[in-house]
Write a structure and sequence with these properties.
Elements: H1 26-44, E1 51-55, E2 58-62, E3 81-87, E4 98-99, H2 103-108, E5 119-121, E6 126-129, H3 136-140, E7 143-151, H4 159-168, H5 180-188, E8 202-205, E9 214-215, E10 218-219, E11 222-224, H6 227-236, H7 249-264, H8 268-276, H9 288-301, E12 308-313, H10 322-346, E13 353-358, E14 379-384, E15 389-393, E16 412-413, H11 414-425, H12 430-437, E17 461-468, E18 476-482, E19 486-493, E20 499-508, E21 511-517, E22 528-535, E23 538-545
Helix pairs in contact: 5-12, 6-8, 9-10, 11-12
Length: 546
């Protein structure tokens, strides 16, 4: 390719985005300072919708109530789990899925391009670095697909802003403070605050609370800062140890605060039971990321019941020395994902778990003077799942007909990938999918086998109805059953929905129940009423005449 000034790290037809390159000094530092400040706010809990309780140097997140994903249990998709893998920093897609034999790729990346001898073949046209060879068995067994060139219109190149766009599924000019999964959950569940579940609906391991799970009413995921914090919960059922405290006044005060925190951690028993009901049956990479996936596998195998997990691997902001850092990260991802599915397969759980990578943006197609890449537009997404097949979805990046900044023009909208996962993996009705994503996005053909989300049947809780008590005149039997244990509230309302009396507000074990209502005990005059049952984040109600 003629006319390239490779010594300057800049192609003559390319405009410089202010702050995108590390060589731009203060402008680039400002972009990262903004990102760092956002990270700080999230890490400390100041930007979270829930509250954080600071104990020493550790933060316990006590988020606002979050509804259980029981909708998934209403169909044959009920055992399915989604694992989201965030490649934080902006992954270089061109060096992840390589365009084999493409002269343009090698001309514009004379130093950092992956040579043919350094890759394994996905096909005659595409390959992956040898560092990712652990994924080859998944590819060859039909358990991995590649979505090419994923992005969105008018891409933003700020880490924190583009991360928010991917999490909220918003347009680039919109400011939306809720996440695509959070909105879906909130659309389907309304009673978590009064009758919360004892199993976390979603779980995230990592110091930064992600907007993906955020809804108007709070954060829908339990967030655990790191594997060490998780082990403390899983092994003891408590987040904070009380055994190492003495009788001195400061220790007694700390013991009180820790006791309150431990009591507030409602999911500890479920997590502990799931963790102890399973074992790790694969060898993971020696990294935080590998450890996070090992934890997720163990919880899935222990039948925790959470349906969405989020794990993160950081370090993909490869402005300099990319040849040193990027292959290490890719190997860590590949080794850990391969171990994850080997672990799940050992217990027969692999067919129910779909994993999907995403990153806030890609990298420039041109290498820079620091032998790295700067903030770019699109990047591939990798999707893993037993039985989904292998192959490529969408059109690969065009390295010749680029935008004014020298970036390839995206060809697949990331929200179409989201719509595919919601509808065809999690079996969410298309109307709910469109509501969660804020627009009409279409599932990607060929990515996942299509599903027909059924109407809700056989709820995990059933409000069976009412009838006169056969033994006591004037008493009405209200019947209900629960397939899962948890807090439950039964109440009487006026026809206009105004709450009138609470009949039951307690923790119920699984089973069938009859509540014997004596209207005179609650000073209920003859007339029309509604009785409402709240459990597991859902509301059920019927009309009744007294």
């Amino acid at each position: 390719m003629s006319g390239n000034d490779h010594t300057s790290g800049m192609h003559p037809k390319v405009k410089r985005r202010l702050g995108a390159s590390i060589e731009e000094g203060k402008a680039h530092q400002l972009a990262h300072r903004n990102f760092g400040r956002r990270d700080f706010l999230r890490l400390t809990g100041l930007a979270a919708l829930g509250s954080s309780l600071m104990l020493g140097s550790t933060s316990l997140r006590a988020f606002a109530p979050n509804p259980l994903l029981q909708y998934l249990n209403l169909s044959d998709c009920g055992d399915r789990v989604l694992v989201l893998i965030r490649l934080k920093g902006g992954n270089d897609g061109l060096n992840t899925v390589i365009l084999r034999g493409n002269d343009e790729y090698y001309n514009i990346r004379p130093t950092i391009a992956v040579q043919e001898s350094g890759l394994w073949a996905l096909s005659d046209q595409y390959g992956m670095p040898n560092e990712m060879s652990a994924l080859q068995p998944l590819w060859e067994s039909g358990s991995m697909k590649v979505i090419h060139n994923v992005g969105y219109p008018d891409a933003n190149y700020s880490h924190f802003r583009s991360s928010d766009i991917w999490a909220s599924a918003s347009d680039s000019e919109e400011i939306v403070n809720t996440g695509w999964i959070g909105r879906w959950l909130e659309n389907d569940y309304q009673a978590f605050a009064s009758a919360p579940p004892v199993v976390p609906p979603a779980l995230q391991i990592g110091v930064e609370t992600n907007m993906i799970f955020r809804a108007l009413s709070g954060n829908m995921a339990l967030s655990i800062s790191n594997p060490q914090e998780f082990y403390q919960i899983a092994l003891s059922g408590q987040l904070y140890n009380l055994n190492n405290l003495g009788s001195a006044p400061p220790d007694r005060e700390l013991a009180f605060v820790r006791t309150v925190a431990n009591s507030a951690f409602r999911y500890s028993e479920s997590i502990r039971d799931a963790y102890n009901n399973s074992i790790t049956q694969a060898s993971y990479s020696n990294s935080n990321f590998g450890e996070e996936l090992a934890i997720v596998a163990r919880l899935i195998k222990g039948n925790l019941g959470s349906k969405v997990y989020l794990v993160t691997i950081d370090g993909f902001d490869t402005h300099a020395n990319q040849l040193t850092n990027h292959p290490v990260l890719l190997q860590r991802v590949a080794d850990s994902v391969a171990a994850f599915y080997q672990d799940l397969a050992a217990s027969g759980h692999s067919q129910n778990v779909l994993a999907m990578t995403f990153s806030e943006f890609g990298r420039t197609i041109y290498e820079n003077a620091s032998v790295g890449t700067d903030h770019g537009t699109s990047s591939p997404m990798l999707v893993f799942g037993e039985g989904i097949g292998n192959g490529f979805i969408g059109q690969e990046p065009d390295l010749v007909n680029t935008d004014n900044y020298g970036d390839p023009i995206y060809t697949t909208d990331f929200r179409d990938a989201y719509a595919t996962v919601l509808e065809n993996w999690l079996c969410v009705h298309p109307d709910v999918v469109n509501s969660a994503l804020g627009n009409d996005f279409s599932p990607l053909g060929g990515l996942l086998p299509p599903s027909s989300p059924p109407a809700p049947l056989n709820d995990p809780i059933a409000l069976l109805g009412h009838n006169p008590d056969p033994e006591e005149p004037g008493v009405i039997q209200i019947k209900y059953s629960l397939q899962k244990r948890g807090p439950l509230r039964l109440s009487i309302l006026l026809p206009n929905g105004s709450a009138l009396r609470t009949l039951v507000d307690t923790f119920h074990e699984r089973g069938s129940y009859i509540y014997r209502l004596r209207p005179q005990d609650f000073y209920l005059a003859p007339g029309q009423y509604v009785y409402r049952l709240e459990n597991g984040g859902r509301i059920y109600q019927r009309e009744i005449s007294l």
